[in-house]
Amino acid sequence: MRKLFTLGLLVLSIFVVSACEEDTPEDEEIDRTLTTTLTDSLELEKDYEGMSFIQDGIGEVELVRCVDGDTAVFNEGSQDFTVRYLGIDTPESTYRFDPWGKAASEHMCEALEAASTIVLEADDNTERKDNNDRYLAYVWLDGRNINLEMIELAYTPATGATDLEYGAIFSQAWFKAQATERRIWGEDDPNFDYSKEGVQITIEELVTNQEEYIGRKVTVSGVISSKVGRHGYIEQDGFGVYVYTGFEYTTKFQIGNEVILDNVVPTYHPDQETGALQLSGFRARNLEIVSEGNIVEPKLVTLDELTVDNIGSLVEVHNLTIVDVYAGQEGAFTVYVEDELGNEFTLRKDSSSSSDIAITDFTVGKVLNIVGPVHVYNGDMQIMITSTEDVTFIE
């Protein structure tokens, strides 16, 4: 009897397993189509006419600069401020280079630049600012919530969205995008370099053949010629490039140190049209000191002689007359100068540069000599003021 019972259980088990296998296709196809149906259906219901985002938590603003896929700088009235988008966290494309980071940044920046109306909306369920003093907001572009669209297009997960006003729909978009296994949810980024080691090149090769190395891991060597805050410029044989160190810190990254930087990634910030070449993906562990106490001699040039090949390198220009000064935010300022031939140029003191550099020293009519690295902002070259020793006023 026991043998018959055991045999019956075995037959029943085989039948159940066979039935399950028939009901579950081995190669069930996944729907990989990305749609924005949730974004299409979501509407901004709050009134923003005549409102101020900073004061009221909602208001129309103007784009100053797109930073990356989840951060941008906007203007309201006379104030510029940085906004971190609520509920999303796109892969990095500035201080670090992650798969799909550049694609996410490009999609966001194109959307911002194409928008006729930009409205920022705060969320009453969270703080107005994050720990980096950036405002937190939903960004509505011509009535579309771009935060939600980025989730639906698989450029970002929904992060910290549980208690947010739009948390439910953000989570729904997240699950929907995950199921497609597209982009960050399973696809290799065709523009990301997955190799473990950077190709060794000279800075001259990088500067003069930029398109060949954008997005690729490279290894370069040179002398740190100047610093702006914790970031700085590295130069070799008269060619230089800006190094964005992000949130990494090391005492090895100091002016005068000859170093090898391994596995850094050339990118443009904020983009190729308006910004400059930089090295991102910096890691302190990937920096090796070759020697210390080196001096980079600046190249003496006139304004007429400055070219794109000078961007990132240290130059010296004489006899520039101050024609105007513009005070920016948080200790930053711009000095407008012209040479003896009437050529106009700008000098820039960044907010992260030494606080000893006082705007009151730069008055209209003064003549000066400047030593500094060449940078690009809004498509125009400028020389950075990084130290009080870099400026010599001529009586």
Task: Describe, in plain words, how this protein is organized in 3D.
With 395 residues, this protein is an alpha+beta fold. The protein has three domains: 37-185, OB fold (Dihydrolipoamide Acetyltransferase, E2P), CATH 2.40.50; 199-291, Nucleic acid-binding proteins (OB fold (Dihydrolipoamide Acetyltransferase, E2P)); 299-394, OB fold (Dihydrolipoamide Acetyltransferase, E2P). It has seven helices and 20 strands. The chain has helices at residues 2-23, 37-41, 53-56, 101-114, 146-152, 167-180, 203-208, and strands spanning 58-66, 71-76, 79-85, 118-121, 135-141, 144-145, 199-200, 218-228, 231-236, 239-243, 258-269, 276-280, 287-291, 299-300, 314-327, 333-338, 344-349, 367-377, 380-384, 391-394. Strands 1-2-3-5-4 form a five-stranded mixed beta barrel. A five-stranded mixed beta barrel has the order 8-9-10-12-11. A five-stranded mixed barrel has the order 15-16-17-19-18. Strand 7, helix 7 and strand 8 form a beta-alpha-beta unit. The longest helix has 22 residues, at 2-23. The protein starts with a helix and ends with a strand.
